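Lab notes, practical 5.
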Amino acid sequence: FLPACFLLSNVSLMAEGKHVDSIVKLSSTMALKCVCPKNASISQMVWMKEENQTKKLIAAFRLPYDLHIESKYKARVLVTNFTSDNKTLIFSNTTEEDVGFYLCSFHTFPYGILEKTIHVVQFGAFEFSKLSVDHLITKPGENVTFKYRSNSDVAVNRMTWERVQPDCVDLIIQCADSEMPVYGSDYQNRVECISESSVLLRDVTASDYGMYRFSYHKVNGENGTGWIKLITNSNGKDLLLLVLSLVSFTTVILSAGLYIL
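Output from the prediction step:
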């Protein structure tokens, strides 16, 4: 066993019917990641913020170089243009007014409009706590199976998988019995449900380094959560999948979770 540590404090997420792809903690300089999830021809990209149940424009980008930023945001917002499919929104000098729901959308051919929803929250400091860790070894370019190994015969009817970073939580996929999977925007082309209790992540790279969390719901009402840590060494050769010990709950208590309502 290897020592590792990670614990999230509570974050209140009120999605109210929205498909939330990511939760981002408010900081003085803040990046909201938006990458087109499919290989497509992109004509335009738009960033909007939801205010009082209406969507208000922040920025619009018409490829290849035409960028419009609303006057309210011009002094403290920029949109990256390193590649045509990455239009991350970068804030500086943020305030409490920047908390809320953000929507980025790519206008593409042949897939139409592809969207990602991000929830920016003010509170949710990340703390650390020592945990025991099992480990598995794989190599870059290989596929990796993340699996919850239950200590009982009670069937799992829904599982949610997330990637957890110091200032962000991303939905990977939600697998449910007899239902279509719900994909996070950044993972929909790389992940699939193998069963209700396991998922396959394709083509692992060094950039997949980090903490992963799964939460399960069983048919008898039992709920719980567990952790996986994906580690790469400095030269990017070997990867360690560190499967953190399972933490079981008998009530639904999920800290900083992504909810599909």
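Observations recorded by the TA: The chain is about 0% helix and 55% strand. Confidence is low (pLDDT under 50) at residues 1-15, 234-261.
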